[in-house]
Specification:
Elements lengths: L4 H4 L2 H18 L6 H26 L6 H10 L9 H48 L7 H14 L12 H6 L3 H12 L1
Helix pairs in contact: 2-5, 3-5, 5-6
């Protein structure tokens, strides 16, 4: 859905206070988590987000009946602020991430994993905005991310589904630059 700037960035105002509240709750309990355990679970959440980002983009944004047309619109109008309302992100995050994590890990470590995933998600939203709207310095991470994502827009269903990292595209064989390089080598 097309959004204004405030609505597009609303998650940056909604998620951090929620994460801080639940993190404080976890540490205020009768048996707070060990900081090292919490930090490790947080890191697992950040890394897990990168896989979720890849899978969502590859399979849901490009193939789900309701979301694929919205994502197609983003491909057609990449400078428009097209996204999901913050309340939808919060509900999906609670149902698909926080709830199952709490059931499996308990409040203490679940808050860490959820906080890590939220951090990864907010980083994704920010990077995606930047690579469409800023002119990053040549050779920088942002310039490489911009080029990577531009290839995705050009060859939409073929690859480069990761926005914040190309790792999963390389793992699953959807890295467009790698495939192009292989095609050029096999033609020699």
């Amino acid at each position: 859905m097309k959004m204004g700037r405030l609505a597009y960035f609303a998650e940056f105002f909604v998620f951090p206070p929620l994460v801080l509240f639940f993190t404080a709750l976890a540490f205020a309990g009768t048996t707070p988590p060990r900081p090292a355990d919490w930090a490790l679970a947080y890191l697992v959440g950040v890394l897990a987000w990168t896989l979720i980002e890849y899978l969502l983009h590859r399979f849901v944004f490009h193939h789900a009946p309701i979301l694929a047309p919205m994502h197609e619109r983003h491909h057609d109008e990449p400078l428009e602020l097209i996204g999901t309302p913050a309340w939808v992100s919060v509900l999906v995050g609670a149902a698909a991430v926080a709830g199952p994590c709490w059931a499996m890990l308990g409040l203490d470590l679940a808050t860490a994993v959820t906080a890590g995933m939220v951090t990864g998600y907010l980083y994704y939203v920010f990077i995606h905005y930047v690579i469409h709207h800023w002119q990053p310095r040549p050779g920088s991470y942002l310039a490489r991310a911009r080029r990577w994502h531009a290839l995705h827009h050009h060859f939409a269903d073929e690859g480069n589904f990761g926005v914040t990292t190309s790792f999963w595209d390389h793992v699953f064989g959807t890295a467009l630059e790698s495939r192009r390089h292989k095609l050029h080598r096999s033609a020699d």
